[in-house]
Amino acid sequence: MNAYVYGYGKPGKERLIVIDLGVTFPDMDSSPGVDLIMADVAWLEENKHRIDAIFITHAHEDHIGALPHLWPRLRKPVYARRFTARIGALKLEEAGIGTEELHVVEPRPQVIEAGPFKVQFVPVSHSIPESSALVIDTPAGRIVHTGDFKLDGSPIVGEPFDPVLWHEIAGEGEGVKLLVCDSTNVFSPQPGRSEATLAEPLTKLIAEQEGMVVATTFASNVARLKTLAEAGKAAGRSICLLGRAMKRMVTVAEETAVLTGFPGHIPAEDAADVPRNHLMLIVTGSQGERRAASAQLSRGKYLGIEMKDGDTFLFSSKVIPGNERGVIRIMNAYSEKGVEVIDDRGGLYHVSGHANRPDLEAVHDLLKPQMLIPMHGEHRHMREHSKIATSKGIASLVATNGMMIDITGTAPKVAEYIEAGRTYLDGSVLIGALDGVVRDRIRMALNGHVLITVIIDEDDVPLGDAWVELMGLPEVGRSGTPIADQIEDELAEFLERAPDKIISNDDKMDEALRRIARQVTMEEIGKKPEVTVVVSRLMAD
Amino acid sequence: MNAYVYGYGKPGKERLIVIDLGVTFPDMDSSPGVDLIMADVAWLEENKHRIDAIFITHAHEDHIGALPHLWPRLRKPVYARRFTARIGALKLEEAGIGTEELHVVEPRPQVIEAGPFKVQFVPVSHSIPESSALVIDTPAGRIVHTGDFKLDGSPIVGEPFDPVLWHEIAGEGEGVKLLVCDSTNVFSPQPGRSEATLAEPLTKLIAEQEGMVVATTFASNVARLKTLAEAGKAAGRSICLLGRAMKRMVTVAEETAVLTGFPGHIPAEDAADVPRNHLMLIVTGSQGERRAASAQLSRGKYLGIEMKDGDTFLFSSKVIPGNERGVIRIMNAYSEKGVEVIDDRGGLYHVSGHANRPDLEAVHDLLKPQMLIPMHGEHRHMREHSKIATSKGIASLVATNGMMIDITGTAPKVAEYIEAGRTYLDGSVLIGALDGVVRDRIRMALNGHVLITVIIDEDDVPLGDAWVELMGLPEVGRSGTPIADQIEDELAEFLERAPDKIISNDDKMDEALRRIARQVTMEEIGKKPEVTVVVSRLMAD
C-alpha cells in the first residue's frame, strides 16, 4: 500500500507532494472482514493546505487502489500518464467522485510544477503499461523515485527501459542527490528476464495441449495477456477473456492506444459452443482469489463452461507470498477434476516485473546517486538493498513507515516520526486499524461469543433467570450438560445471593456475570470466550 | 492428519488394522480458534469390534498427534518402535490415559500378528528417528506401506535406507501386491540429498558469524539438531536448546538410545551470561508459530536473551506451504533489529525428509509392486505419483479421503465410500468440523455481531425500548449517528406498530428484528452482520 510524501521548505511548513495512494489486501489472520487496507492519511489530511499535488506512478492496486477512498480527504490535483489516469478515472467515477482534478501527463520532457517541485514522468518497464519513474527536482537537488520497474528492453507492450535516457538524467545539473528505489527482487541473484522470452515456451506449451486450455495471470499484465492470446491463436484456438478486471485492463489499454494488435476474442456466452480443443480461456485469479474466474472454474460450471479431465490450467504467474493457501486449494480442486495444472516451477512461463539484484546494481551505477533509500519490499528486502548501497559508498538508510528523512545533508538522516498507521475499508466505511473493531472480530473468531441478558426490576431484584446464548461455541462440553444451561444455573445462584450494591451497579454486574460465564466455559471446554452482558433495568412508572 | 485402515475378510465383516492417528494444524481462514484437526473416526468407532490393532509408523505430529484424542474412542492395542512409543506414551500420560495398550516393537524380523494381518516394521530414513515402513502380509498378498521416507544412506541419527533389505522383502513369496507410497516430493526432479551433506556448509556458516547465532529447525529432526549443535561447538560456542518440544525430542532420543554423542548444552538461565559471540541457540518455531521461541525472540527479550544488530538467525528448514505469512513476519521482525536472517534459499542448509521423484521411481523399481496407491501429499501430488506408476505399467488409483479400495483383483478398484470428515480439538473438547460452531466464528469474524434484546410484558406489550449492542462493527457509519442508536430507533418504530401476532411469536420477532438490524447496518456500512435476538417475556405471576 504505497504512499510516499516529499516535502521542501522550513521545518513544519514544507510544501508537500504525495506519490501513489495504494492498497494492500486483508487476510483472515489479521484483518478478517476487511475489504481493503490503505495508509492512514490523518497527518496528510491535517496538513492538506501544504499539499500541492498527488502523482500516481502506475495503475497497480498497491499504487492507485486507495485513490477513490483517500482522495476525498485530500482533494488535490492528481497527475498520471494516460493509461494510469484512465484506470484512476474509472475508480473515481465508480465511487461517484468527479475527475476534474485528474490530469493526464505526457512523459519527460513535460514538467509538472507543484510548489517548489518540478516533476517529470520517465517511462520504465514493469508488468503494466506506462509504469513511470519520477524525476523530482527541488532546490535541494534531484530525486529519482523509481516506482516499480525492471530492465526490459522488449516488454511487448509499453516502453522499454532506456539506459541512454537515464544516463542523460543522471548527467544533468548536479546529478542525482537521492535515489528512492524498488527493492522487491533484491534477493534474486540473476539478471531479470524480458517479457519477450515467454512467447516461445508459451506458444510451444499451448500448441501441445489437447483439451481446453485455461491460463491465468495478473489482470493488469497486458503484455502477458497479449502473449498468451497470440499463443492460443497460433494453436488455432478461439480466445475468451473471463474476469471483469482483465477485460477492463484490455479495454483501457486499447482505448489509450498502449495496446494494439490484441487478437480478436469471443464473449463467454459463445465459448461454450467452441470445441474444447479449439478454446483457450484467459482468466483472472492467479492468486487464488475465491471470487475470481479461476476459483469459480475450479469449483464447477462457470458461465456455462466446465473444466474436465484432459484440460490444462496454466498459472503464468507467481504466487505472492501469503497467497499460497488459496492457490494450492485451486490446484488441488483442478487435480481432482483430472485437469493438468502447470505452474511456473521451472521459470518458463512467467517473468517478474521487478529488477533483480544485478539490475538494481546497474541502476545504481547508471544514476550514481549520492544517497539511496530503498522502497517497495519487506523490511528484509530494504535492509539488503541498503547494505548493497552502503557497500558501494552510497549513503543509505532503511525508512520504515512514518519516518521523515532529511536528505539535505550528505547522508539521509531521520528528522521526525509521523504517526502513520493503517486505514481499513470495511464494507463502505473507513475505520482505523486500531479502533478495536477488527480486534473484537478476531477475538470472537478465536474464542466464541457468549451473550448474557438479565432483567432487574424496579426494586433491584432480578426478574426471572438470566438468559444465555452461545455463538461459535460447542453446545456441550465435558459434563454432557448444555453449557448455556450450566452458565444459567451458576448465574441464578449468584444472583440469588448477590448483595444489592452489586445488583444495582452495572459495572460490577458486568464483571461478575462475565467471570462466571468464562469460568464455566473454561471448565467445560477449556476456552475463555468473549462475553457480552446486557442488564435491562425496569424503571418504576 | 494421516489415518489409514486396512481390512481383510467378508465385505462388511473385514477385520481391520489402523495405521497412524495424526493431526493437522488449523488456520484462521478455515478453522479459527481450533487447536488441532484430526480425522473423524466415527466409522471406526462404530466398527471397533472389528479392529485388531493400531500401528504408528513414526512420531511426527501428523502421524501420532491424535493418539491421546482418538485412542479413547478405539481402545485397541497400539504398536510402535521404541522412540515413537515413548513419544506416544508421553502424550497419553499428559492426557491422563494409561499406556498399558502401547507396545514397543522391534523392527523386522519381529512380526506382529493382528487378526489376519502379519505386520513388520522396516526401518526407513526420514527426518525423525526410527521412522518405519510397514510390511503387511495378508492372505490376499503383501502390502508395503512406506510411511514417510527418503533414501538416505547416512542419516546421522537412525538407520540408513537399506536397499538390500528392501530387495529381500520384494523377493519373498509372491512379491509385493500393493505399494502404498509417500508422494510429498513427487514434484522434486532431482535425487534427494543426504542429511550428512549439511554438516560442512552449516559448520562453515556458523564459524563465520560474529554475533550470537540462533538456528531453528523442526523440533523432531534430531539429526539436524545434532549437526547444528556440533557446528556450534566446532565454532567454540556454548549450545542452548530453547523450546519444550525440542528438548523433549532430544531427551527421548537419548533415553531410547537412538541419539548418542549429542554435544553438552547449557540451560537457558545460563545462556544470558555467555558472551554473544560464544553462544548458539537452537530454537523451536521454524514455521513461524506465534508462541514458539523463534517468534518470542523476534518480538523482544525471551528468557533473558535478546537478539541484536550483528546477530544471525538461521532457518535450517523449509516453509511448509501455508505457513509463509508467519515466517515472513518473523524474518522482518529480525530484519528490523538488524539481525542477519539466513534461510534455505540456496538449498545449502536444509534437506527434505521425503523421497524425490527419482527416489520414488527407484523404490518402484526395487519393490516391483503389482499396484500402487499414492499417499501423503495433496491431491495434485498423488495424481502425479499415480501417473508415474501408470506409465510404468503399475496399476494405480488416487484414493481420496473415505475411499475404500478393493485390491484383491489385478488393479485397485473403489469398493465403497465411507463418511470420513474432520474432527476438531477445540479447547478441551472434540467437535465435528460441520457442527456449525466454527462456521459461526468465521461469520462473526467476517461480518461482526449485533445483539438485540427486547422485553415483552405479560400483555405482549414491549416494555421499554429494544437494546442493541455491536461487537466487531464500527460504531458509526455514513450518517454519523451511532449505528446502535439507529437500529434501536428503527426497532422502536417497528415494535410500536407491530401486530400482536408478531409480538407474541418468537420466530417472527426474531426474523423481523434481525432483518431491521441487517438493513440499517447495510445502509450505514455496507455489511450484513450476524444478529442474535433475545426476546425476554415477563410472565404473569
Automatic annotation (TrEMBL), chains A, B:
Domain Metallo-beta-lactamase residue range list: 2-183
What UniProt keywords are attached to this protein's entry?
Answer: Exonuclease, Hydrolase, Metal-binding, Nuclease, RNA-binding, Zinc
List membrane-spanning regions. none
The record's section on InterPro entries has: Metallo-B-lactamas, RibonucZ/Hydroxyglut_hydro, RMMBL, RNase_J_2, RNase_J_b_CASP, RNase_J_C
> Which is one Pfam family of this protein?
RNase_J_b_CASP
The cross-references to PANTHER family, in alphabetical order and at most eight, read: RIBONUCLEASE J
Which named protein is this?
A: Ribonuclease J
Q: Write down the species.
A: Rhodobacter flavimaris
